[in-house]
Structure formats: C-alpha cells, structure tokens
C-alpha cells in the first residue's frame, strides 16, 4: 500500500433524500445513469469507482430506511472494496459524525458526496496525499471551492459534535483551510436535478 494513502479513510455520504431531484423525477438519483450513454454506470457507482483504491479504507454512509439503495450497496460494495454503514440520521452533519465514530483514521478523512460522480482520480490523489492530522483541505476550480474535502484526524472531536444538515461547513469557514487548485470542473458538479447529469 502506498504511503500516500495510509491512514486515510474515504467517507461517501449517501444518506440524503434527494428531494430536489425527486421533485422532477421520482427515483433515487444515486441509482440513475450517470450520463445519457447506453450502459453508463449509476451515479453512486461512478463516484465509488473514482475513489476505489485511493485511500486505505472506503466507507459508504446511507440511511437505514433506504432499502433500495441498501440492497444495491450490498450487491455492489465488494466491487469497490467498500464498507457500508446504515444509519438513522437527521441530516448530513449527523451522518458524518456517525461515520467518523464508526471508522477512525490515523491521518484523517476524505469526505465525498455520493452525488458527485465526475471528480477525477488525479484530483482525489492530490487531496489524499495532502491530508495530515492538523489540516483541512479543499479543492478549488477556477477559484471556487468544491468537493471532496480532507479533514485531519485532529478535528475528530468537532466532527463527532456535528448534527443536523450543515455538515462540516463551519470547519471550512476557518482561515486554516488549505486550498488545492485542480483543473477539474467535476469538483463543483453535483447532481441535484436530472438535467445536471453529463450527456456523453
């Protein structure tokens, strides 16, 4: 295992309800095709594929009542060497708190969103290599901050205190955040509506 990935756990947050997507189309956005191409993988599969092998561990967090997504994960997680954590959650922050409580990391965590399938592996590798216990890392594209984000192990107590739907936003309001500029618009592109998917 390369030194650059040791001590880092990737957490994929896949516990949202996708309300904005469901307003347009009644289906789980994480399980729809990531593009218009025939045979294109589901959104979550593409997200996980980009992260596979990039960190020492890979943990997917989802709701314990999302039976369709849980069934898919149970069938597919082995392909990505991913662990599944099914939680009862009241929001993004609460999901993240439960994830770090479940899976510690010596250097820190790479926190990714399940609905961001277009992030390039090179961008992920740069972020992972930079994660250290005292650091907060964020990718930027043309000066705009994106995801996934690196959170050092020293921030564990603050992560454990998260609740509700704000996630780790307050951490990243700090001046201690280190930005990594990447040539990758995928760090800004999430799928909130059907038209957000890339057509290939």
UniProtKB/TrEMBL annotation:
Keyword field: Magnesium
Classification via Pfam families: NTP_transf_3
Record's keyword annotation contains Metal-binding: no
Residue ranges annotated for the MobA-like NTP transferase domain, each copy included: 10-174
Molecular function GO terms recorded: nucleotidyltransferase activity
Entries under PANTHER family matching the protein: MOLYBDENUM COFACTOR CYTIDYLYLTRANSFERASE
Protein name as catalogued: Molybdopterin-guanine dinucleotide biosynthesis protein MobA
